[in-house]
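Researcher: Quick test of sequence recovery. Tokens follow.
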């Protein structure tokens, strides 16, 4: 990374002489809380939450808390044109083919804004373990991924109409010391046999927060980025590595047909799609230097902490 804090570059983009510009974080959960410290020196950060009890936590992090609910358009009125910089971290609602939350949000966004949207690599669907770059057409194969494609489409339309800059970060499984599959391992949920196993992709939550901050300034308009690390692992290998690190039993392995009968349809949708994501565009255009290039390295560092 050229700068310790990626938004130091903002000084060369015309910081407001009458105060910090406003930035709105929609859906300020774990990743949002990692992002706020990277932004608060250059921006006045407003963080949206649907939970009033989180207001003090957000204030302590350096953000101005705003209580609003993307499922309730009337609650978004106070956000209308509040900030010309937006980070959209909120997931779609749990059902349906369209992302109504993103549709409600675009109704109150300003013109000529800059927005970073955190989407999912699930938009590509099952690619049979092939290497996938951003030129591959999306082919979502479950309702969850179709909602994400809908959100990307809606935001692209908003950006064109409003003259705004949009960056789409397609993100795989996010991990960190507090985001590991320990409960799954303790429950002894099986994984696929090696010959049936799928390729999986990862990004550390701290790296993701850093990439979001970089994308605010360096992303090309209406550009999608595979936001993944350099790991080349299968899902069972990932579970084995976490189990070894925390001295838990490795999960048993089962054939595809048998495991599908044991797990929920939602879990199976994660376990049946295989793809390997190319991150060259992220590295070259956003000038990303990953703190945790590979999962195994990150796990080793967790062990030494």
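Model:
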């Amino acid at each position: 990374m050229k700068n310790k804090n990626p938004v130091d570059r903002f000084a060369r983009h015309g910081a407001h002489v009458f105060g910090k510009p406003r930035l709105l974080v929609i859906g300020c959960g774990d990743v949002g809380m990692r992002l706020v410290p990277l932004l608060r020196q250059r921006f006045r950060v407003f963080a949206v939450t649907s939970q009033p009890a989180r207001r003090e936590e957000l204030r302590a992090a350096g953000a101005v808390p705003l209580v609003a609910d993307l499922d309730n358009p009337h609650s978004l009125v106070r956000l209308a044109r509040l900030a010309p910089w937006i980070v959209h971290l909120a997931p779609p609602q749990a059902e349906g083919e369209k992302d109504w939350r993103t549709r409600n949000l675009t109704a109150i966004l300003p013109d000529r804004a800059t927005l970073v949207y955190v989407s999912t690599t699930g938009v590509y669907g099952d690619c049979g373990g092939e290497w996938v770059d951003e030129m591959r057409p999306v082919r979502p194969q479950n309702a969850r991924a179709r909602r994400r494609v809908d959100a990307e489409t809606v935001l692209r339309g908003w950006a064109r109409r409003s003259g705004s800059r949009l960056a789409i970060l397609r993100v795989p499984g996010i991990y960190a010391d507090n985001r590991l599959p320990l409960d799954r391992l303790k429950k002894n949920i099986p994984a696929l046999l090696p010959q049936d196993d799928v390729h999986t992709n990862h990004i550390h939550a701290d790296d993701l927060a850093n990439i979001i901050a970089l994308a605010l300034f360096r992303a090309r308009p209406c550009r999608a980025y595979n936001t993944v690390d350099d790991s080349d692992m299968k899902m069972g290998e990932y579970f084995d590595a976490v189990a070894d690190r925390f001295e838990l039993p490795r999960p048993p392995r089962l054939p595809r047909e048998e495991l599908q009968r044991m797990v929920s349809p939602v879990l199976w949708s994660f376990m049946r799609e295989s793809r390997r994501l190319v991150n060259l565009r992220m590295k070259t255009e956003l000038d990303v230097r990953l703190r945790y290039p590979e999962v195994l390295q990150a796990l080793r560092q967790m062990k030494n902490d």
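The chain has eleven helices and 15 strands.
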